[in-house]
Design brief:
By secondary structure, the protein is an alpha+beta fold. It is 28% helix and 20% strand.
């Protein structure tokens, strides 16, 4: 079974929508708030691939939520149907192996 981390920030519409969907599907995951210093200790924050793809000199992960699978696969836009601001169920089920 895969290990999932969801990188979020507070008051994020899409973050809340994804977390609710994951709870409904009973998916196990760890939440990392990229604005919370206590989460900076997570190994993901030191992952060179994560940093090169999602961070710059000013901040990390402006496009949220970010799905991290096994600390090596990263997903963002693929999980959304942005026409109606809903989760793309087919793609989300594929990512979360449902």
């Amino acid at each position: 079974m895969a290990n999932y981390k969801i990188v979020i920030k507070k008051s994020c519409f899409f973050c809340e929508k994804l977390i609710d969907w994951l709870k409904d599907k009973d998916v196990k995951y760890k939440v990392l708030d990229y604005q919370d210093p206590k989460d900076f200790d997570d190994p993901l924050m030191k992952n060179p691939t994560f940093n090169s793809l999602y961070c710059d000199m000013s901040a990390c992960v402006e496009s949220l939520p970010l799905i991290v699978k096994d600390d090596k696969e990263f997903f963002y836009g693929e999980v959304w149907n942005l026409v109606n601001n809903e989760i793309n169920e087919e793609k989300a089920k594929e990512i979360f192996e449902l």
